[in-house]
Amino acid sequence: MTDIKTGQISIDDLENVQITIGKIVGAIEKKAKDEGVKVGPTPKPGISTLRSWDHKILSRYHPVYTPACDQCCYCTYGKCDLSGNKEGACGINMAAHNARETLLRVITGAAAHSAHGRHILHHLIDLYGNDKTIDMGPSNLLAPNTLAVTGIKPETLGDLEEVLDYVEEQITQLLATIQVGQEGGAIDFESKILHGGMLDHVGMEVSELAQVSSMQMPKSDPDTPLVEIGMGCIDASKPVLLVIGHNVAGVTYIMDYIHDHELDDKIEVAGLCCTAIDMTRYKVENGGKPRAKIVGTMAKELKMIRSGVADLIVVDEQCVRADVLDEAKKLSIPVIATNEKIMYGLPDRSADDPKDIIDDLASRKEDGALILDFHVLGQVGPELAIKMSKIRDEMGIKALPKEEDMQGLASKCIYCGACEMDCPDNLPIMEAMKAGVDSDLSKFEYLHDKCIACGRCDQACPKEIPILNLIEKASQKLIREEKGYVRAGRGQISDPEIREEGVNLVLGTTPGIIAMVGCSNYADGTRDYFKVADEMLKRNYIVVTSGCAAMDLGMYKNEEGETLYEKYPAKFLAGNLINVGSCVSNSHITGTAIKVAAIFAQRQVAGNYEEIADYIANRIGAVGVAWGAYSQKAVAIGSGCNRLGIPVVVGPHGSKYRRALIGKPYEEEEWKVYDARNGEQMPIPTSPEFMLTTVESVEELLPILAKNCIRPSDNNMGRMIKLTHYIELSQKYLGHMPYDWYNFVRTETDLPLAKREELLKILEKEHGWEIDWKRKKILSGPSMKSDVSAQPTNVKRLCKGEC
Amino acid sequence: MVDTTKNTQIYETWGRNVAKPVNPNVAGKVITKAKRPLLVVASELLKDEKLVEKAIAIAKKGIPVAATGHSITALMDKGIDAKYINIHSLATFLGDARWSGLDGKGSYDTIVFLGHKKYYLNQVLAGLKNFTDLKTLCIERHYMQNSSLSFGNLKADVHFEALDELIDNL
Q1: CA proximity to A133, closest of A157, A160, A103, A163
Q2: Would the N or C end of chain B have less CB density within 10 A of its end CB?
Q3: A81 vs B16: CB contact, 8 Å cut-off?
Q4: Which residues on chain A are in Cβ contact (under 8 Å) with B124?
């Protein structure tokens, strides 16, 4: 029997009949089989399939709940007071309810990413067809998350449909468990959280596979161009078209229209959040020049709108403020919504003549429009921005207060403290007001970098002082100087790069991967992130970044006047700084870890999630840092890392996620694994000591990062390097030797070379270890042996003789 | 005598159980009567030298200190028993009867907080409030509704006076 293929066929004898075959059940699996791809035990896992793996993680990393509310108000039995871990009317207790709350956030984030993936996939299939080949650069392992989870090895855009079918079905199944009267066990909500996180990385990966393959974005390119970033780099003398969101599909039509009509030098196209990142990746493959600038993260959104610089705002989806239309209206800036997820109540003009839309918005007959037809959008956007620029100039719109009004506004303050109490960071606004009365604006300027521009202070002020506007007006000089560079997102790490660097990561001679990701809700301003990256890069860690974190790293310069992107190369090697791309590019970070297991260790990937995760957990010294994580997407990303055994640190605001996974170093029994060579138990170092935790300050964070890159598989050289950084960073930022450094010593060759003798003395004197001083060797004391041949695993079935 | 109980206005709600406002003399007695108190300080301490002095003065009354964040940098070589620990780990261990404390001498019964970010501490306290029986006492500038006992919202100078009075009562 002949195999039927997808596509269109005609039958000779039947006139005007054409049959389209869109999908063949089992075709992907058959193709994989034909190509010799072995599929492991868990393709397309359901909610319970990887439960035993989750419970292994959770038996070492205990769920810790810090509720954001003592009550449950999910159903009409309530509100129920669950304080003191009481049960509500339905029988759920505080622990389970908080795990459920976290699950809801995780699947919200996963849904946001996968719905983004579905939207862009449909759009690109419409443009290029199902058979458009997936091309991510010089790799055979194109879709590591997808392959590990589903067992599917996608080769075309059409293949991705089935992957998303799976993700969407699982998200629905998880959402169903939120319903009252479903799951009651906190531990199983925890397993579901990890499941949701895993799905999130597949959803993100689909978005990336589709857009990188179809939009001429860089493909594993370490030499992507540098892109201008910062409010100061926007040329306000030109018409400014500002795009906000995460989904680049619509704005590519605007960019093409501008390019095709030779308007590139006549319009300033700038973006906020991840759409901005992806705009700068669009058509830059093979040396293309970026056609947009980046303003910055969500923390710049209200600041940028209120600056009045934009002549038109185009929004798509995710991380877009709910009040964009209201804020823009005050400054006569039209708003165009381009995605069903955000429509702001605007009239649907998708089918209208572009000229009519432009007339209605330019005359302010309408404040904005919903345009879902991207051809219409492509024309309306640039032409309207040009028209509005002139109109707004003629109107003489002044956005921020005048200098002479500042003192008067500050003197309206009655020092009630409402602004400070409502400020998420309790910033010292009253001090700035006091100084402002005396025309000293320096204290407002001080607030600029620390303020995340949420606008809660404005809402709280009983005197209706526009506090954020005062801060921004006082900071005009600083803002003009806010100019930096970001390296355009390069996409995934290629297979050849993994071959070159994998061994160093597994043995520890490259001390670790620090993945700096997430949003900009920092504890103490943007500069903190720069400090962390700079310190770790100097120490030869690989720093991988994405999304808003990638943007913020480009905002500052070192003493030599360079941004980190200018200073450090972007290959997958020790001491390199890699921007993989936007929020959905986070899948490349977990994908890299999977690739190390597949390529360096030759582990089977397809449908073999548990074994891959087990390998990563025990061997790859990677830590995620989401220092300013604010969104549901961020907690979904973090949970996906956790299921793969990658620990994640969030900043202090991350405590509001209300859950952490923390290990207890004093419980010796919890820090053991099997040696796969013989199935015997072996002790492991207490690192990572958490899967998810919060940290208060960057000074505290830095030694934590070094410590939590330690893994059982480190060879002596690797352990020595990692221990050196842990000790040095503790001394530098906390002022003392870490209390637990000796717990990571297996033999004298693990000790930092320069301090070996000094540390041997401490081991003997303070910890009672026996030292042979002639040979400078440790005779007894360590709780674990150094054995580079050991095969640490958490999974008994992977041990010799078990299968 | 400083009245630290007047302003207990809250700006976010957690639930119906909120901290009992206390005056410095009562707070001093609570600490004195505790079998095993622990002072937990954090990095906000470092923003004001005076606050560091008050924390050291309390510690010198024989109260062990858990220094979270990077606050330990101001507390070394001051003749006090201070040790660094991450606050989220600390809060986890505090609720575990098997934890032997920072010094190996056993767990604690009364936890006193000073020098923390308000939102962060309130979140940590939400965990302790709901999942442990520990007595928590906040001697911060802000009313910390999720602790068992707390000062109210105070101006900076009143806060220092209150801390002095508390120290006198130890």
Answers
A1: A157
A2: N
A3: yes
A4: 66, 655
- Count how many Cα atoms sit within 13 Å of the Cα of residue B133 in the half-sphere of its side chain: 3
Residue with tokens 């999130």: A200
Instruction: Give the Cα separation of A538 and A383 in Å (integer).
Output: 47
Quick check: A620 and A504 in contact, CB under 8 A? no
| DSSP-H helix ranges across A632-715 | 632-643, 698-707
Residue A652 has its nearest CB partner, among B16, B17, B117, at B117
Range(s) of the domain holding residue B62: 20-168
Q: Which residues of B touch A71 (CB under 8 A)?
A: 15
The residue whose two tokens read 């103490």 is A524
Interface test with A, best of B98, B119, B124 (most A CBs within 10 A): B119
How far does A336 lie from chain B, in Å, by closest CA? 35
Check B92 against A739: CB less than 8 A apart: no
The CATH number assigned to the domain holding B34 equals 3.40.50.1220
Contact of A522 with A425, CB cutoff 8 Å: no
B15 is a domain residue = no
Let me know: does A321 contact A337? Beta carbons within 8 Å: no
- Domain count within chain B: 1
Q: Is residue B11 part of a domain?
A: no
CB burial of B39-58 (b: ≥16 within 10 Å; e: otherwise) equals bbbbbbbbeeeebbbbbbbb
Say yes or no for a CB contact (<8 Å) between A70 and B131. no
Q: Please indicate, yes or no, whether the overall pTM of this predicted structure exceeds 0.80.
A: yes
- CA triple A711-A713-A719, angle to 5 deg: 65
Q: Residues 19..78 of B with a Cβ closer than 8 Å to A: which? A: 42-43, 68-70, 72-73, 76
| A512 neighbors A624 (Cβ within 8 angstroms) | no
| A95, A666, A693 ranked by CB distance to B86: nearest | A693
Quick: pLDDT tens for A601-624: 999 999 999 999 999 999 999 999
Give the N- to C-terminal CA distance of chain B in Å, as an integer: 15
Low-confidence ranges of chain A (pLDDT < 50): 1
Cα–Cα distance measured from residue A489 to residue A495, given in angstroms and rounded to the nearest whole number: 18
Q: Does residue B66 lie in a domain region?
A: yes
Q: Is B67 inside any structural domain?
A: yes
